[in-house]
Amino acid sequence: MTLHILEKLAATNQDCEIWWDSSPLVYEKWKHETLSQAPEGKRSEWEEQLQRLLNVDTINTTGQMVFGGVTTNPPLSLQALQAEPDFWTKHIRAIAKANPGAGVEEVYWLTYLDVARKGAEMILPVYEASAGRLGFVSGQVDPRFVTDYDRMLEQGLELSRQSPNMMVKIPGSAEGYRVIEELTALGISTNNTTSFTVAQYVECMDAVSRGLSRANAAGIDLSKWRSVITHMSSRLGNLGDLSAQAAIRGIELTPEEIQLGELAVLKRAYRYGKETGHPSKMLQCSMRVFDDGPGGTASSWHVEKLAGGDFVYTCPPSYISQLMNAEDRMQPFDSEAINEDAPDRLIQKLRKLPYFRQAYDFGGMLPKEFSQFGAFAATATEFAAATRKTVDFVANALEETSSRAA
Predict the structure, then answer these.
(1) Tally of structural domains, the chain
(2) Full-model pTM
(3) Which of 234, 262, 303, 374 is the most buried (most CB within 10 A)?
(4) Confidence of residue 80 (pLDDT cuts 50, 70, 90)
């Protein structure tokens, strides 16, 4: 048996977890597409590996899979709808029929809840076999309302009721951390998303701690509760204001320096969590592969330089495919990489940029400023646009029904 590259990463720390960053409903289609493009001589090896990562028959019989959990959101769930458009179009119409008078937005949300529930039920045996340690599916509140406390709390509670293994994904706004506290106080597992900075991570840990204190005082069962805090690596370095601020100041940053800066922020938060003994686990997402192509080298520092840490890595289908194609040209994982720091001279260079100071310093921002941070604002806008596409998928299905009825 040849280990998948992500299994090799997980082997650098017994508490490391690899998650699937998309709806589990699309895994089989992606697997077949990936295998159809496998390099000569690799297909059988890849097929064995991908069967281990996630296989419905194995999940149902043993409660086992390599993936420790799943992260998803409304935009990612669009992939599930588009993978089986005929099925979901009929299903959307059935939802509308069962909810007379419901508008497009309501039918959309009911559809999203159904996609999230079906994904959670698919891997529920993993949750049960691990006594609630693994097998969670993250369902996200609507990205269009990242500062609406009441709406996020209402949707978070709805999501939590879909399946025992539902983990609620909440954005890293000031209002989002209030929601995280409330959900934690009820024993509901959470995933802090749209988060990039040390100040956000500390605020999240504090919110979780307050929620746990309230839960314990109320006698809430926390035996199957979990908290993860997401670091959106490449979005921090490439989607916000880092490069623009560097250009204005005549500071040149290489792709390698940007990656090291992103990782320095994550490592700082990770170590803070370890030093304080906080139960939340850091989750790394938005990773990238740098590949020079055949005959050249390849790397993904977003995982390589964290090897040895007990992170959750949530990996989208495209990233996994890139890793598999680049593995033969990448360096083996070093379990001591987590202990390496970015050079002091680089940190001082990056600290000349207000954007990096906001991300790296413990007091870099006040909670009311989180939703104004460059990477947050850009990501929220992107996710909101993708959500509108999901809403329009629903609208189109309902319009076709109306047209036929007319």
Answers:
(1) 1
(2) 0.94
(3) 262
(4) confident
